[in-house]
């Protein structure tokens, strides 16, 4: 029998349907209870439409500086996943270069000297 894992996401919204609280749990996470989060990005591939379905949410208290770091880390994570899933080492390296450029331009990474300011 195949193993089944489950991910649950709970989003509390205000009167304007803006997220106030995001919590999640996963059966394979190894921890009990819900974990809090300030932001999430979820992308799913629609097999029939050959298109990406996306959900991007963030809470009222997610700061701009936190959002900059969140995006930078997502870019790095996407490069890692892309490399593992496709074997495209060169393109993954280019994606990491962009993530470095992004982080440096936003001031969340120290300058490396590789990019013109």
Description:
- The longest helix has 23 residues, at 64-86.
- With 117 residues, the chain is an alpha+beta fold.
- Helix content is 34%, strand content 29%.
- The chain has a 3-stranded antiparallel beta sheet, with no helix packed on it.
- It has helices spanning 64-86, 89-105, and strands at 7-13, 19-26, 35-37, 39-46, 51-58.
- It is built from 2 helices and 5 strands, in the order βββββαα.
The largest pleated sheet is described as:
3 strands, antiparallel
Tell how many strands the DSSP assignment holds: 5
Structural class, please? alpha+beta
Estimated helix fraction: 25-40%
β-strand amount: 25-35%
**Lateral strand order in the biggest sheet:** 1-2-3
Overall form:
globular
Question: Total number of helical segments?
Answer: 2
Determine Rg (CA atoms, Å): 17 Å
SSE series: EEEEEHH
The end-to-end span amounts to 56 Å
Q: What's the pLDDT, averaged over the residues?
A: 93
Low-confidence stretches: none
Oligomer: single chain
Short précis:
With 117 residues, the chain is α+β, with helices and mostly antiparallel strands. The chain has helices at 64-86, 89-105, and strands at residues 7-13, 19-26, 35-37, 39-46, 51-58.
């Amino acid at each position: 029998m195949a193993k089944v894992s489950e991910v649950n996401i709970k989003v509390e919204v205000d009167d304007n349907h803006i997220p106030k609280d995001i919590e999640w749990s996963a059966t394979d996470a190894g921890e009990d209870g819900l974990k809090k989060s300030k932001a999430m990005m979820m992308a799913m591939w629609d097999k029939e439409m050959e298109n990406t379905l996306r959900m991007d949410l963030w809470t009222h208290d997610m700061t701009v500086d936190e959002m900059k770091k969140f995006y930078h880390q997502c870019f790095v994570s996407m490069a890692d996943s892309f490399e593992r899933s496709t074997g495209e080492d060169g393109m993954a390296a280019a994606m990491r270069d962009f993530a470095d450029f992004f982080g440096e331009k936003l001031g969340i990474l120290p300058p490396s000297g590789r990019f013109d300011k």
